[in-house]
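User: Before I run my own analysis I want an independent prediction to cross-check against. Here's the chain; please return only the structure tokens and, at the end, one sentence I can use as a sanity check.
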Amino acid sequence: MKRWGAMLIFCSQAVLAACPALLNYTVPGLMGGQINLCQYADRPLLVVNTASHCGFTPQFKQLQSLYQTYGQRGLMVVGFPSNDFFQELDSDKEIGAFCEANYGVTFPMAVKGHVRGADAQPFFKALIKATDDAPVWNFHKYLILPGASKVVSIGTRTKPDDPEVVNAFLPYLKPAESVKN
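Assistant: Structure tokens:
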């Protein structure tokens, strides 16, 4: 019996150790539930601070397209709505309805929160520390490579489907022929 207890403790510690500190966060989901970022540790993760009423809001279309095109091969996209730049809707319910109705967003979205400054969500504080680059506007992107081995900060003006972004995560995806439709 002691042997099984020791094995269970060892396995639990191994699972906990498998989650890089950068991804060791659980955030409330926009449409309910929780988003455990550890579950994305083994794949490229594109994190984006979003806003519904911004000149860059059409980037939702490209984000959704990336998610649809590369999601089965391992890419994960997670949106983090923020009103830090005064361009987001008031409630999470309104944000969710807007994203779904206007852009068909199906990738996970967190509840509205801060992405910069002293009030920034802990996950964004960790991203800023990892890159030494805080969002200066909506649709700032962070590409986290598997195992959080590298974090790339991508400015607002760079579109999510820009070859620079796509070429950065493509090597970490499963081959297209290995994915069944």
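Sanity check: The chain has one domain: 19-170.
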